[in-house]
């Protein structure tokens, strides 16, 4: 055919179709015959079948599954329950978790209609296997009638015994072919004639259904604007050379290897064998790591060069992975490393945990011999990567040497982050593992301050939407309360925690009402003060109660006239608590904001400050207290301070502000400011710059950088 006389054919490539595979299960047509009396007498259990429940229609449902190459590509999906009245019509769309572009050419969908056969049992009414691509590699579309093979489940094999299409010469088969041509636009359309034709077809369809002995399942596939042809993704170099394929090849047309080397448009091919264990490397590892513990292995010591290599490996960061050579080196000198407290975490990373003999030697023989490790290494062993309960028990035993303050500053958020990071896996680490819950509970019962923090940490977690995690934390709460009641003064401590919960709930409800109220800010402040001053609410005066934010502070009430509401989207409340010693403790109570991230950042500030102080470097960091009391509420210590923007606007520069409030004319080296104030300002500024840079804290500008008015306190941050 001449090139100029060819008709244009517009189509779409399957590789460009990024939509999920969808179809609609429409209805079931055909007459189902009930069992005869002879069959019921021979098999009495048949009377429970749904087909016997005449005149009501049985509760049929349809299951479907995508298969290819005799293998399932998805899990089976089923239609939802529906009470049928006159006919079996579902009209339910099914969306499979796979895209069209990912379909293989031989993809099939199996459909099986099921009926009840008794309590918790079902039988197949019929099955059918439907191919998604036609003979010309085009994706099927529109309405399709699938033949159901009676009393059989769709097999989904390549040579299927339940094909959806057979060579039937009935009138409906002929009419359906004409309808498909009409829908594709291959037949001229005439409105008045089409309406008459479709009415006649409906009559023929009803008559054919009455006399047909077959069952048919109707499905609807999406109708695209153009035919979709099966194609696989191509690289850009293949696409660029495809234009010259129809032309006659000439010797001058040679593809140079350099063009492939410089082309970055190559596609990726998934190779499942890459993730599997290389048998050669596995054999090499077994030969290198002989499990026979000879006296030579126990007395083996590294030379100077290897000792330096081991020291460098032991100084790696916890997040740095080890190469296979480094793991083999550590395993070779495992007995020598038992005297080095830094070596345990690296040694456990070098263990092949799928090898039972290697695990037995590592855990049962070497682990008890290891010298005491540092607390930070023990915390690392309690992470989600440690799955052996004996190793976790060893880590908990090492933590018993840590003081309560360190446990409070590090352990809680470390466990929380580890727990959240492992929720997506099937082997989530529970607090019950290796006695970790018991260890924390013992410490919390022993220390009142730590117990208060531990209690509120658990209260936040059990309020989460994840019911599995909430139940796990609920068991820890029950165990904690049981141990608390057994201790001296446990009943009083439990009552104080209950009163704290009532206080937080009252404040949260008031904060929620203020946030959702349409009143202007002055009106909100007026309502808040009236609420706090009302004696019915028991907030203006109360028996001494440890403040949830800081259990060392005993509060006896809230000063209503000093309380206020901030001007922000969440309208947080500023509350001044009256302390038992006569002082005041101001704090901010927020509702509608997740304070757990703030709590973690402040704890990291505290940790870094302790690490710096250990190196005799005091940068005057004094982080304020933050406590999350729920997934979307919490409280933070309020530090009276002034924004840098306000200071610059009023005084011109920070130096003028410091000179005005803390003058020292005799101090030339500090520009006329008290030396202690300048020293605090410079050190805290440097410290917070480094800490916020390491934590990636952004959005720091002059309106949320604060300076305490006493001059001796460092910088603070407005969130």
CATH class descriptor name of the largest domain:
Mainly Alpha
Structural class based on helices, strands and sheet pairing: alpha+beta
Summed up, the domain count is: 4
Uncertain segments are: 1-5, 237-264, 404-434, 711-719
General shape = extended
Strand content: 15-25%
CATH architecture of the largest domain: Alpha Horseshoe
CATH topology title of the largest domain: Serine Threonine Protein Phosphatase 5, Tetratricopeptide repeat
Radius of gyration: 37 Å
Number of helices: 24
Mean pLDDT: 80
Instruction: Identify the CATH homologous superfamily of the largest domain.
Output: Phosphatidylinositol 3-kinase, accessory domain (PIK)
What kind of sheet is the major sheet? 9 strands, antiparallel
Number of strands: 20
Helix content estimate:
40-55%
In whole angstroms, the N-to-C terminal distance is 74 Å
Please outline what is shown here.
By secondary structure, the chain is an alpha+beta fold. It has four domains: 12-170 and 212-229, C2 domain (Immunoglobulin-like), CATH 2.60.40.150; 287-495, Serine Threonine Protein Phosphatase 5, Tetratricopeptide repeat (Alpha Horseshoe), CATH 1.25.40; 509-594, Phosphatidylinositol 3-kinase Catalytic Subunit, Chain A, domain 4 (2-Layer Sandwich); 601-717, no CATH class. The strands form four sheets. Strands 2, 3, 4, 5, 6, 7, 8, 9 and 10 form a nine-stranded antiparallel sheet that branches. A six-stranded antiparallel sheet has the order 12-13-14-15-17-16, sandwiched between helices. A three-stranded antiparallel sheet has the order 18-19-20.
């Amino acid at each position: 055919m001449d090139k100029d006389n060819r008709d244009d054919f517009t189509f779409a490539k399957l590789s460009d179709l990024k939509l999920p595979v969808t179809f609609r299960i429409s209805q079931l047509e055909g007459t189902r015959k009930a069992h005869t009396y002879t069959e019921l007498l021979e098999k009495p259990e048949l009377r429970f079948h749904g087909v016997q429940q005449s005149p009501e229609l049985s509760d049929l449902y349809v299951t479907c599954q995508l298969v290819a190459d005799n293998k399932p590509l998805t899990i089976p999906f089923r239609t939802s329950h529906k009470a049928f009245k006159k006919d079996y019509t579902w009209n339910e769309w099914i969306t499979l978790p796979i895209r069209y572009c990912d379909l293989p050419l031989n993809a099939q969908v199996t459909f099986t209609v099921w009926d009840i056969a008794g309590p918790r049992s079902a039988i197949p009414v019929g099955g059918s296997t439907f191919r998604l691509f036609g003979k010309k590699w085009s994706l099927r579309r529109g309405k399709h009638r699938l033949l159901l093979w009676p009393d059989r489940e769709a097999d989904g094999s390549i040579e299927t015994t339940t094909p959806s299409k057979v060579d039937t010469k009935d009138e409906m088969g002929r009419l359906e072919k004409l309808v498909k041509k009409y829908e594709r636009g291959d037949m001229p359309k005439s409105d008045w004639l089409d309406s008459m034709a479709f009415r006649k077809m409906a009559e023929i369809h009803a008559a054919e259904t009455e006399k047909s002995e077959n069952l048919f399942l109707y499905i609807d596939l999406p109708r695209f604007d153009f035919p979709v042809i099966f194609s696989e993704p191509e690289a850009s170099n293949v696409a660029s050379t495809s234009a010259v394929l129809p032309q006659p090849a000439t010797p001058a047309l040679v593809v140079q290897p350099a063009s492939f080397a410089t082309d970055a448009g190559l596609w990726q091919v998934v190779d499942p064998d890459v993730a599997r264990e290389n048998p050669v490397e596995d054999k090499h590892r077994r030969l290198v790591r002989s499990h026979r513990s000879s006296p030579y292995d126990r007395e083996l010591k590294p030379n100077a060069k290897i000792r330096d290599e081991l020291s460098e490996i032991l100084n790696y960061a916890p997040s740095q992975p080890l190469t296979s050579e480094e793991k083999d080196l550590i395993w070779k000198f495992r007995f020598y490393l038992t005297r080095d407290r830094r070596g345990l975490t690296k040694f456990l990373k070098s263990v092949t945990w799928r090898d039972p003999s290697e695990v037995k030697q590592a855990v049962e023989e070497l682990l008890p011999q290891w010298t005491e490790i540092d607390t930070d290494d023990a915390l690392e062993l309690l992470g989600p990567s440690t799955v052996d309960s004996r190793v976790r028990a060893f880590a908990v035993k090492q933590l018993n040497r840590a003081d309560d303050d360190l446990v409070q500053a590090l352990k809680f958020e470390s466990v929380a982050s580890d727990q959240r990071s492992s929720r997506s896996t099937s082997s989530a680490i529970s607090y019950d593992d290796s006695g970790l819950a018991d260890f924390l509970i013992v410490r919390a019962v022993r220390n009142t301050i730590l117990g208060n923090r531990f209690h509120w940490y658990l209260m936040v977690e059990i309020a989460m939407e994840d019911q599995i995690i909430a139940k796990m934390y609920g068991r820890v709460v029950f165990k904690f309360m049981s141990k608390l009641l057994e201790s001296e003064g446990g009943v009083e401590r439990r009552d104080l925690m209950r009163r704290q919960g009532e206080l937080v709930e009252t404040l949260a409800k008031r904060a929620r009402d203020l946030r959702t109220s349409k009143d202007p800010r002055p009106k909100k402040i007026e309502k808040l003060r009236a609420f706090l001053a009302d004696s019915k609410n028991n907030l203006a005066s109360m028996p001494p109660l440890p403040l949830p934010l800081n259990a060392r502070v005993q509060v006896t009430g809230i000063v209503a006239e000093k309380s206020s509401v901030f001007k922000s989207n969440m309208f947080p409340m500023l509350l001044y608590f009256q302390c038992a010693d006569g002082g005041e403790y101001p704090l901010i109570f927020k509702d509608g904001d997740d304070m757990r991230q703030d709590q973690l950042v402040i704890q990291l500030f505290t940790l870094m400050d302790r690490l710096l102080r250990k190196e005799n470097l005091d940068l005057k960091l004094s982080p304020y207290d933050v406590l999350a009391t729920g997934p979307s509420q919490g409280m933070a210590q309020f530090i009276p301070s002034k924004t840098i923007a306000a200071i610059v606007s009023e005084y011109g520069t920070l130096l003028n502000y410091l000179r005005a409030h803390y003058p020292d004319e005799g101090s030339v080296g500090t520009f006329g400011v008290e030396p202690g104030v300048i020293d605090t300002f410079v050190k805290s500024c440097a410290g917070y710059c480094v800490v916020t840079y390491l934590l990636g804290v952004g959005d720091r500008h002059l309106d949320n950088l604060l300076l305490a008015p006493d001059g001796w306190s460092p910088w603070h941050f407005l969130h």
